[in-house]
């Protein structure tokens, strides 16, 4: 099978992403961005080999290497390039059929390679369906990575079932299976739950099957990473997945079609990431290895009497990163205590392990601002503080520097080394908070203001007027290591990366704008 001859006659884009747009192209953009990066292409490999300055004597030294090494080389290539190696020499001709292969249907499209969130239209996807069908029938397996994200699943549902059965016999390690088109109208094939070799699973735009009808043996014993994007599922379905994934380390839910409710009991999970979803109660009941609880553009619950989403933290001794907590939509509960304005902090309400905290605050809404000191008191060891300044339609009052000085003892911010204000608008309330941090944070080293373009789309005179309060801010700074405030405009319209969020080697996923 020669995948290199496959071509597309015409290509058409989905419309660009818009946070207010709920169609498939908008919701699935984040799912495509979250896919693991494809391996190096064959062309890049050849360029790298040429750069190594091998002797120009015409001798084929690579083909003389042992079969094990040649298979290792081929297994690191995308399927399209792995097939092409058969043209190098007779020795390479059948190697690709017996190695752990990497196949991404997006890799067949130059447009997808240039723009990872682009996907073809219905007519263009027909050829991709044929290519997927061929590779699954031809290659014996295993697959190191298999990504099916461009196909139209409605073209031939019976064929999709055959694919799922073929995949079950291939020993797939990393699988991405994203359904198209929109809307959801048929459930995820139950065969998926027999894929015991999976270590990473991305599911997008599917309706969950009836888990009660699945066999008792259904499980993912080796699964470490799970992404669920634009999924219609019930609480029991999520509980089923968590219960059948004993070594799961990262769980991400993007754009859930129903309220997300979790009572987390896991001795393996290290990162829970929820985005673009409405939240019910999120309870971290017993998660001794949990390091990150990340929330991005979440909304309050759509059902139930209490419209606030309650984030309850029980046993999470290793939690070191929390946010964004939206003070107007989330209720934080630590143990049995709800954290609200004026609360008296006790040992039972302190989480000393958190080093990075991110809050979403309406600085012009006084009741929200009054809750911030309570949050800071509960996390006395934070070293990095991110504040996303939210837009306010109806301001309810000013909050001056005196409020912060009286409500926040110096212990609240004594360990803060880095402060970043996102969507900074230049308001007096923002200035008061920043001045407080500069005066009271005794080890402060860096401060960044990511400017809101709408607020600073003005004349140079207005810009200087809004920034004038910072001219004398260094006169009363509490930290000798703090020198200056860095200003910048956002580098992207959607400043969040779910892939970066689950990358535990990334020390600060909130700083996608690279404020420093």
Automatic annotation (TrEMBL):
Gene3D superfamilies reported for this sequence: 1.20.1280.50, Ribonuclease Inhibitor
Domain F-box intervals: 59-106
Superkingdom as given in the UniProt entry: Eukaryota
CDD domains: F-box_AtFBL13-like (cd22160)
SUPFAM superfamilies linked: F-box domain, RNI-like
InterPro entries: F-box-like_dom_sf, F-box_AtFBL13-like, F-box_dom, F-box_dom-containing, FBD, LRR_dom_sf, LRR_FXL15/At3g58940/PEG3-like
Pfam families: F-box, FBD, LRR_At5g56370
Protein name (database record): F-box domain-containing protein
Annotated organism of origin: Eragrostis curvula (weeping love grass)
């Amino acid at each position: 099978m020669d995948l290199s001859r496959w071509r597309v006659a015409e290509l058409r884009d989905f419309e660009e992403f818009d946070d207010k747009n709920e169609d498939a192209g908008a919701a699935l953009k984040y799912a495509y961005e979250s896919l693991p990066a494809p391996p190096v292409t064959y062309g890049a490999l050849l360029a790298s080999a040429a750069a190594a300055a091998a002797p120009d004597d015409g001798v084929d030294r690579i083909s003389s290497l042992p079969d094990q090494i040649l298979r290792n080389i081929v297994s690191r290539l995308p399927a399209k390039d792995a097939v092409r190696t058969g043209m190098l020499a007779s020795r390479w001709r059948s190697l690709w059929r017996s190695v752990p292969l990497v196949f991404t249907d997006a890799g067949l499209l130059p447009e997808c390679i240039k723009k990872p969130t682009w996907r073809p239209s219905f007519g263009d996807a027909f050829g991709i369906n044929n290519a997927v069908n061929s590779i699954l029938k031809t290659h014996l397996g295993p697959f190191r990575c298999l990504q099916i994200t461009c196909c139209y699943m409605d073209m031939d549902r019976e064929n999709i079932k055959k694919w799922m059965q073929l995949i079950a016999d291939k020993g797939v390690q990393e699988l991405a299976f994203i359904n198209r088109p929109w809307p959801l109208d048929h459930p995820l094939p139950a065969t998926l739950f027999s894929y015991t070799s999976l270590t990473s699973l991305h599911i997008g735009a599917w309706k969950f099957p009836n888990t009660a009808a699945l066999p008792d043996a259904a499980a993912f014993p080796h699964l470490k990473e799970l992404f669920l994007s634009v999924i219609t599922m019930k609480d029991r379905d999520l509980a089923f997945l968590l219960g059948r994934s004993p070594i799961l380390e990262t769980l991400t839910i993007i754009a859930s079609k129903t309220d997300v409710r979790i009572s987390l009991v896991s001795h393996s999970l290290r990162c829970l990431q929820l985005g673009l979803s409405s939240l019910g109660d999120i309870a971290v009941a017993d998660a001794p290895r949990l390091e990150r609880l990340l929330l991005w553009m979440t909304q309050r619950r759509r059902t139930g009497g209490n419209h606030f989403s309650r984030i309850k933290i029980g046993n999470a001794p290793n939690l070191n990163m929390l946010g964004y907590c939206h003070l107007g939509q989330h209720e934080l509960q630590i143990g049995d205590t709800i954290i609200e304005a004026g609360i008296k902090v006790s040992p039972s309400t302190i989480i000393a392990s958190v080093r990075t905290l991110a809050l979403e605050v309406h600085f012009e809404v006084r009741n929200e601002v009054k809750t911030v000191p309570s949050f800071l008191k509960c996390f006395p060891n934070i070293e990095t503080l991110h504040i996303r300044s939210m837009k306010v339609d109806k301001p309810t009052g000013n909050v001056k520097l005196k409020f912060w000085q009286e409500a926040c003892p110096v212990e609240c911010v004594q360990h803060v080394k880095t402060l970043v204000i996102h969507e900074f608008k230049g308001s007096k309330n923002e200035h008061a908070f920043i001045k407080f941090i500069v005066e009271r944070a005794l080890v402060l080293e860096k401060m960044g203001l990511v400017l809101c373009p709408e607020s600073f789309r003005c004349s140079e005179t207005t810009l200087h007027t809004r920034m004038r309060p910072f001219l004398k801010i260094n006169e009363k700074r509490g930290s000798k290591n703090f020198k200056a405030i860095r200003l910048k405009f956002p580098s992207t319209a959607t400043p969040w990366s779910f892939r970066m969020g689950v990358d535990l080697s990334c020390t600060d996923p909130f700083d996608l704008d690279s404020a420093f």
